[in-house]
């Protein structure tokens, strides 16, 4: 009754891999050590799976390792938060630039006002940085 539309399935607990958990510190060590290697020589899920079978006698399947590696990579990716700007908020700045007016190059001082909500921009150039300008 608290939702107008059913929210769908929600995972209530983390998925655990009891066969893989004792070997996670070993895998993390391999992956950390392989960061110093060239990109094409780093550990992939297949390489980790082969090493676990050879060196640690793991009896689990490849899918467990592949899923762990995918989740580990997904959690380590850079995330971006979208910016939201309220109406009426603005950003102002002052600057200077060399401009050519009538064939003469001179320095112009300018004022910039940016309104990010509407993407509007106001720029005005002045010949000097005096209070009157």
Helix/strand order: HHHEEE
| DSSP E strands, number | 3
Structural class by helix and strand composition: alpha+beta
Mean pLDDT: 84
Integer-rounded radius of gyration:
29 Å
Strand content: 15-25%
Main β-sheet, spatial strand arrangement = 1-2-3
Principal-axis shape equals elongated
Largest sheet: 3 strands, antiparallel
Query: Stretches where pLDDT falls below 50 for ≥5 residues?
Result: none
> Can you give the helix content as a percent range?
25-40%
Distance between the termini: 62 Å
| SS field, number of helical segments | 3
Can you walk through the features of this model?
There is one protein chain. Helices cover 29% and strands 23% of the residues. It has helices spanning 24-34, 45-56, 62-76, and strands at 91-101, 104-115, 120-126. The longest helix is centred in the middle third of the chain and has 15 residues, at 62-76. The N and C termini lie far apart (62 Å). It has 3 helices and 3 strands. It has 133 residues and is α+β, with helices and mostly antiparallel strands. A hairpin with a 2-residue loop joins β1 (91-101) and β2.
